[in-house]
Amino acid sequence: MLSRMMSTAAVRARGAARLYSTAEVASSKPILREMKALPRETRRKLRLEAENSANPIAKNNKSPVSRLVLRTVFGATGVATAAWHFYLSEATKTEIGQRVDESFVGSIVAWITAQIQEMARPFTKPSRDKLLPDWPMINRGVPEGYPQIPVLILAVEDVLLHSEWDRKFGWRHAKRPHVDEFLETLARYYEIVLFSSEPRMMVEEVLAKLDSKQCAFHYLTREETHFFNGVHVKDLNPMNRPLRKIIVVDHNPENFQLHPANGVTVPAYLDGADRSDRVLKDLIPFFEALGKENVADVTKILSEFADADGIIRDVGPKWNAKLAMLEEKKRQDQAKGFGGFVRGRMPSRPSAPAMSFKN
Fold first, then answer.
1. How far apart are CA 316 and CA 41, in angstroms?
2. In angstroms, how far is the first alpha carbon of the chain from the final one?
3. What is stated as this protein's family in its record (predicted)?
4. Phi and psi torsions of 355, nearest 5°
């Protein structure tokens, strides 16, 4: 009896639920049809009105007073900026800056700046105070008392090789033409340093393959650069060598902006398939002659090749042009006088022009 009553109640409940859902669907169909008939803009307007009525504060969360304050602040800032740049003289700006620096606010700003610089120092300064070991390097075969030879710092990226990446082969590296001859020839006269702007863990193997004959004394990487003005600069101060004996070869003057008098700018090597490049080949005679002379101050010699903007570039072609001028002058001197007349008719073998650096 009890089970029959429970089954009857369940049947009635299912029937009631079925009737309720049918009525609900039947009543909702006209509403759905009506909503679909409304244009999109009208539906959007109705939705926004419903949201604003539910939260009237969100409709306008800025009072007229706050708007006026913001406009006043922005306007005053713009007027002050324009006056500072276009109206005030440099002397007035300097005086204002000095007064601010001497005030309590200036001392607080200076203290905060010093703290920030100290925290950022491990990320901006070279990893150690002495990037190169003391000279002479007895453990590298340099005898005690051997005079200091010039230091030639060579940038790796786009100077000695070009690197590129694609999805098919990954990273590929192409040596610049004549790089092996360049390193082998100048290793007899210079303490060569290969300086990469990439992290050591990424380029250590590349440097070993680039310098397969171990012509370079040292390898330096990004950890030894000085991050300055947004650039990883090759700072020569911690090189532990006299600045007058250091030469930097790079394709970008910003990379040695702290010591522009020591830098030689060369065209960047950006096409690994270009095997006609002769930049390094043309530099060999100049650096070889400079290394043989072992001048006391290389910056004085490099300054003779600086352009009007102060950048030292095209050293190889300029050096060859000077040699050609000397050869022509020598030929003209030999042609003067009776002796030159006689010598001009005698067979002779041309000799290479001799040129020395005056320091």
1. 72
2. 124
3. Belongs to the TIM50 family.
4. -140, 130
Whether pLDDT at 149 is above 90: yes
Is residue 139 within 8 Å of residue 233, measured between CB atoms?
A: no
Judge contact between 248 and 295, C-beta under 8 A: no
Where is 242: in which H helix or E strand? none
Residues 6 or more apart whose Cβ sits within 8 Å of residue 288: 185, 186, 189
Q: Check residue 2 and give its pLDDT.
A: 43
- Identify whether the C-beta of residue 269 lies closer than 8 Å to the C-beta of residue 253: no
What is the tens place of the pLDDT at every residue in 161-191?
999 998 888 999 999 999 999 999 999 999 9
Q: How far apart are CA 204 and CA 179, in angstroms?
A: 18
User: What's the CATH code, domain 138-320?
Assistant: 3.40.50.1000
Mean pLDDT of the region 99-105: 79
CA distance 306 to 314: 9
Q: How is residue 251 annotated by DSSP?
A: S
Longest dimension (CA), the chain: 151
For the chain, give every residue range classified as CATH 3.40.50.1000: 138-320
Radius of gyration of the chain from its Cα atoms, rounded to whole angstroms: 39
Q: Is the dihedral of CA 249, 253, 258, 259 positive or negative?
A: positive
